[in-house]
Amino acid sequence: MTTGTTVGTTTNTDGFRGNLGPFYIQGRYWLFWVDGTNFVWSHSTDLSSWAAKQTAIASLNDVWKESVSCDGTYFHIAYVGASSHIYYVRGTPASDGSIAFGTARDTGGIGTYPDVCASGSHVYITYLSAAQKPTVIRNDDATSVDTWTTTTGFPVLISNTATSECSRILPKSDGGVFTIYAVSNHIKLKTCATDATLGGEESCSLSFDSSSMFDVTGGGIAGVIAFAYRDANSGNMLYRERSSGGTWDVAETTIVAASSSTRPALFYDATSGTVVLFCVGTSTANHVYYNERLSGTWGGMLKAVYEGSLIDPLKDDGFWLNRWYRDSKGV
Asked: Strand, coil or helix: what is 197?
């Protein structure tokens, strides 16, 4: 079992969530969070000693209003700015732990709960519109150019059904994206092509309303998309998978019974096909556990990887462990 290391502090009770890192680039780990006043980052070479926090975006203190992704060269940040406009800024990390940020660009999108990713050589952002409907927008300028020009045809309304849950986005091998969103007792998926053409809606029915308790991983070249979610009634942590051919698992798989964690965290290794789930609590309070799905079969007992009195199983703590797993396993 490993013990925790303090990265930084925050006065915001929701100071961190899963799409804020950590990331591994330039020989360092990077983590973003809100500290109660600003959106900040820190970096480490060994996960034990962390540098003093630095401000990425000033006066941004709502953890649900920003998202970060890394394409191996740049950090891509989407956030909600003035008048609920969705902004994009690109950051170039250096080996000394600094980040050179470009100019913040108003994408023209209006809404909240952004999620950002690079697919091919372009950036996509999904968000909930002012009417709470999942929407996606695309930068017509390549990631190598520090500008934003919205691609013709974007933003695109993904669904005409309102939802309170963040929509999610994953890259496709053809330069488009998968968009994922939850409505009532369904997780839904649509593809979005580079020319704003949407694919047909796929819908995976669940045995309960999990609209605020799911995580998703995968996409990319493999095309496999994995979902995990918690049954609010039984507390069971459940799993479902969509194959690269678009076929959904017929039935939900119970990974662990009566988990005390409200949100799972998933990692998918496209090389080996391994899916890893992280959650907080289960058989022992204040522990983070993980379980591996190898060759289509989940393992036995969940393995504790962290113990700490500050872990709150009712929040999103522990999400960063999917990145820890990747680097510790060399995947």
From this structure: coil
